[in-house]
Structures are given as C-alpha cells and as structure tokens.
C-alpha cells in the first residue's frame, strides 16, 4: 500500500500548470512536502509531449560528449526510477553501433565521456553485439553497451499522478489556466476554464508552469516573455520487435539515430525542427521517408516491417533558436525561472529537460517554491516506490462519479 508519511503540513496552496510527466512529478513532490496542490491540465493527462515521446529511458550516453551535466543527471535518475517506478520501465540496455568509419573513430571519445559522466559504458566486440541483436547491420564496425532502457511514457507519468492523488492533490484534467491574477507584484490566483467555456476564479499562493512546450503561452498570461523553443520531432513505429535493446548510432546526436523497442513495436526517431507553437504538430511525408532510410541503415529491413503509426511532438527546449541548427545546439538540461525578478513574485517556470529526468526537474522546482516561501522541507520522492499507474484510472473514475473536471481517459503513449 502506498502511504508515505507527511512530515509537516503547510498552509500554502500551489498551482501546477501542466499534466504531463513534469507536472505530475511536481504535484507529487509538493504534496509529499505537505503542500496543498492544485494541478491543471487543459487536455487529458499526458496529452502533451509526454504522451508522444520516443520512450527511451536515457542513460545519458547520447549526451555525454557534448552535454555533460544532463548526461550525468540522466544516469542518476535512471537508477532512481528503476527503484521507485519499475512498473513503467523495461531495463533492456542499449547498444551504440558504428556502421561507418567515422562512427568507429568516435568510439574512444564516446566511452571516456560516458565514464566521466558516471555512465558505465563498455565497448563490446561487434560479433557479440550482433549475437545479442541479430537485426543489427552486418557492416557493424564497433559497438558500445550502455545502460539505456525503455519507458512507458503514460505509465511513468500516471504513476506520479497516482501518487499525487493518493496524497490529496486536487487534479483537474480538461481545465485550462486562462488568466493570472497578481496584486502588488505577487501572485494571488487565476482564472480557469472548462471545455464548455465555463470560467472560475481560483486562489493560490504560488504558480509553477510545468507546461513544457506551452511555457511561452502560460508565461504570456502574466505578461512574461519565456525563453523557450518548441522543437517538433517525428517518430515512426512498425509492428514487431526488431530488437530487444535500444539501438543508437555511435555518433553525436542527430536525426533518425535511435531505435526503441516498445512492447510489440519498434520505433525509429526522431527529427528536429523548430516551430512558433506546439499546437497541431504533424509528421511530414519527407520526415517519414527519411526515418525509414535511417532505420534501414541501422537494422536492414526495418522499412519492410508492417507500418503501425507515425506521429510528432514538440520538445520544450530551454532557450531561443532562430534555426533548426541552433535548436540542436541548445542543451537538454533544465532550469527553473523565478519570475519574482520580473515583478511576478510567486510564479516559476520549469523549462527544458527530458522525460527521464522528470523527478529531478520536479525537485528543483519544488525547492524553488520552498525557498520562496521560506520553508525548509526536503525532497523525499526518491524514498518511496510509487503506486501502480492503474490507480489513476480508479482516481479518475471517482472524480467522474463526483461530476468534477478530473475525468479523462487514457492517452495513447508511445505504444
Ligand atoms: C520527438 C521527441 C522524442 C522524445 N523522446 C524522449 C525520450 O525518448 N526520452 C526522454 O526522456 N525524453 C524524450 N523527449 C522529451 C520529453 O518528451 C519531454 O521533455 C517531456 O515529455 C516533457 O514533459 P512535460 O511534462 O514537461 O511537458 P508536456 O508533456 O508537454 O506537458 C505540458 C502540459 O501542459 C498542458 N498545458 C499547456 N498550457 C496549459 C494551460 N494554460 N492550462 C493547463 N494546461 C496546460 C499541455 O496540455 C500539456 O499536457 C522527446 C521529445 C520529443 C519531442
């Protein structure tokens, strides 16, 4: 039974905007620290980028050479998530595969960068890699094992949402924050709207935007200009499990270089462009053809497998990019912006990051809230195994029975 002790209760009410993985982890973290929590999600829970990502539990190896800090954080969080939410993880490991000569030359720098970031990468003979994953291109020149894995995007977030609900967080799906109210430069509350257009005023003491690629829109409600770039990416899934491990190209991060097995599917991704808005992002025919070509280089025959789906989502990159190339150069690390310095005291924005580091993102945001309120309350989200993601269905059924806005069905996830 999930019943962690609340060490002290605080009067402050914190509003979290965004019912993706980051908002879910934050709602749980704040509730565990004894705050009253209101979580708002304008669609279904996980209907933003969280329900559409690639599903890779990043060991951090992909970022070790160029983005050391997020690489280290990914490895640390991988270990925590494996302990507290094993129901959402397939710990299958990963292989970085060198198909070309320049990729083979990259191996030594890659392995030493991983080790420096605390990632236990090790080169394995190409023959061993192909014995483990026979679908790999026979032209394989070198290969490196890393502790990557597969996450179920929905179950991971839903486990955190279930934990927040169990601790009494008020969670409202299909409820959009449409206005922010301040007085004397301090947050007082906001206006929320349901899908029928009914508006309601709600009070809270702090507001944390965990709206991912929508952070710009939420910030604008308070007159803020948030440095965020929605960066869409496309993925293609075929039926059948072509590999059991996560397969990546042994090269600096690029397009179409990761194959993730997700239950009975194999998913190649992704691409990266930039957009002004995260709404209405769709895959293009050119992207799908490109991804099939890239997948065939890694595992010949991928494109001949039965097509399952193609979809796209927007990354919430922390920074401004005027071009696709500038977007690639932005770190995958995350930050918490305290808008007190811009005249909106009590409002924070969580930007950047990855699904893999959702708990660490939440910890940083909750620490900022505590510091603002002058409350000393440590993060304890690494201490307790989370309840099953299935508890969320029960919670939503209860809310629907009471006629509240908490109802909402399960979103697709990546499988
Ligand atoms: C193509 C692609 C592949 C990726 N692959 C991986 C991967 O394999 N592994 C990994 O770790 N990470 C991956 N990522 C990154 C990861 O998906 C994101 O970092 C993460 O999902 C962001 O979660 P979030 O909760 O911050 O944002 P979201 O899931 O987007 O949640 C924000 C929510 O805020 C809601 N919202 C917005 N405005 C309002 C409002 N006014 N009121 C109420 N609600 C509002 C939205 O509806 C949305 O649901 C990938 C990203 C992309 C784009």
Describe the structure.
The protein is an alpha+beta fold and 415 residues long. It is globular, with a radius of gyration of 21 Å. Mean pLDDT is 94; it is low at 405-415. Strand 1, helix 1 (21-32) and strand 2 form a beta-alpha-beta unit. The longest helix is centred in the N-terminal third of the chain and has 17 residues, at 68-84. The chain has helices at 21-32, 68-84, 101-116, 126-132, 153-166, 215-220, 285-298, 324-329, 358-373, 390-401, and strands spanning 13-17, 36-40, 56-57, 89-90, 94-98, 122-124, 142-146, 149-151, 170-172, 176-183, 186-193, 199-203, 206-209, 228-239, 246-249, 258-262, 265-269, 307-318, 334-338, 347-352. The chain has a domain at 13-50 and 154-228 and 332-401: FAD/NAD(P)-binding domain (3-Layer(bba) Sandwich), CATH 3.50.50. Bound molecules: flavin-adenine dinucleotide (FAD). Flavin-adenine dinucleotide binds at residues 17-23, 40-43, 47-50, 53-56, 58, 176-177, 210-214, 217-218, 233, 235, 269-270, 313-316, 353-356.
**In CATH, what is the homologous superfamily of the domain at 13-50 and 154-228 and 332-401?**
FAD/NAD(P)-binding domain
Heterogens: flavin-adenine dinucleotide
SSE class: alpha+beta
Oligomer: single chain
Which stretches of 5+ consecutive residues score pLDDT under 50? 405-415
CATH class of the domain at 13-50 and 154-228 and 332-401: Alpha Beta
The description of the largest β-sheet is: 8 strands, mixed
Summary of the model, kept short:
This protein is α+β, with helices and mostly antiparallel strands and 415 residues long. Helices cover 29% and strands 26% of the residues. A hairpin with a 5-residue loop joins strand 11 (186-193) and strand 12.
């Amino acid at each position: 039974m999930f019943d962690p002790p609340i060490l002290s209760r605080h009067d402050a009410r914190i509003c979290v905007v965004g019912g993706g993985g980051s908002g879910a982890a934050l709602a749980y973290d704040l509730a565990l620290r004894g705050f009253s929590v209101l979580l708002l999600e304008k669609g279904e829970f996980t209907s933003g980028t969280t329900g559409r990502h690639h599903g890779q539990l990043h060991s951090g190896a992909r970022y070790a050479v160029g983005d050391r800090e997020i690489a280290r954080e990914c490895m640390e969080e991988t270990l925590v998530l494996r302990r507290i939410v094993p129901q959402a993880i397939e710990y299958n490991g990963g292989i970085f595969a060198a198909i070309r000569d320049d990729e083979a030359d990259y191996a030594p720098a890659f392995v030493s960068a991983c080790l420096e970031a605390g990632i236990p990468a090790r080169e394995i003979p190409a023959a061993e890699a192909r014995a483990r994953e026979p679908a790999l291109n026979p032209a394989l020149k070198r290969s490196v094992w890393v502790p990557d894995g597969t996450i179920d995007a929905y179950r991971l977030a839903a486990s955190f949402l279930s934990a927040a609900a169990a601790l009494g967080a008020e969670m409202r799906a299909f409820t959009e924050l449409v206005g922010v109210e301040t007085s004397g430069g301090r947050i007082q509350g906001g206006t929320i709207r349901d899908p029928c257009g009914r508006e309601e005023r709600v009070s809270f003491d702090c507001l944390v935007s965990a709206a991912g690629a929508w952070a710009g829109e939420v910030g604008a409600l308070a007159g803020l200009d948030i440095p965020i770039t929605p960066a869409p990416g496309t993925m293609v899934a075929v039926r059948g499990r072509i590999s059991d491990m996560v397969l990546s190209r042994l090269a600096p991060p690029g397009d179409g270089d990761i194959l993730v097995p997700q239950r009975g599917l194999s998913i190649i991704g992704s691409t990266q462009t930039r957009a002004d808005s995260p709404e209405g992002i769709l895959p293009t025919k050119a992207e799908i053809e490109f991804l099939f070509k890239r997948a065939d280089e890694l595992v010949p025959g991928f494109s001949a497998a039965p097509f399952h789906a193609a979809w796209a989502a927007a990354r919430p990159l922390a920074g401004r990019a005027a071009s696709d190339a500038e977007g690639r150069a932005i770190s995958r690390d995350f930050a918490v912006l305290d808008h007190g310095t811009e005249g909106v005291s009590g409002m924070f924005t969580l930007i950047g990051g990855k699904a893999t580091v959702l708990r660490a993102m939440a910890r940083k945001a909750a620490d900022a809230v505590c510091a603002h309120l002058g409350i000393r309350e440590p993060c304890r989200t690494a201490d307790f195994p989370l309840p099953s993601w299935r508890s969320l269905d029960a919670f939503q059924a209860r809310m629907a029975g009471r006629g509240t806005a908490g109802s909402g069905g399960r979103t697709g996830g990546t499988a």
